[in-house]
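Quick question, first post here. What does this chain look like in 3D?
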Amino acid sequence: QVQLVESGGGLVQAGASLRLSCAASGRTFSSYDMGWYRQAPGKERDVVATISWSGGRTYYADSVKGRFTISRDNAKNTVYLQMNNLKYEDTAIYHCNRASLPYFTWGLGTHVTVSS
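> Answer (accepted):
Ran it through. Tokens below.
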């Protein structure tokens, strides 16, 4: 069973940057496409970005395109999300997981709060 641990969130001002990390343990995840998701208060969980198993293909939601960059280090079983020029509307709990069903068990996520 893969366990996912997200980290790197925090409270920042608009325009700042954060780098989120997602460490996977229990079994290598290098064969899986992975993604970052976020859930804002009172809203459903949405996909933010995905990356193929090799890192060769990426996808970004329109709302983060040009500001966020997803990457991975399969040797470290870790997926990253570099977030630049953060906006108030980026405030959410961020999770990582497989890019498609079936999902691994969801981790606790990491909170990102952006003050305007």
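Residues 1 and 26 are 6 Å apart (CA to CA).
The beta strands are 3-7, 10-13, 18-25, 34-39, 45-51, 58-60, 68-73, 78-83, 92-98, 110-115.
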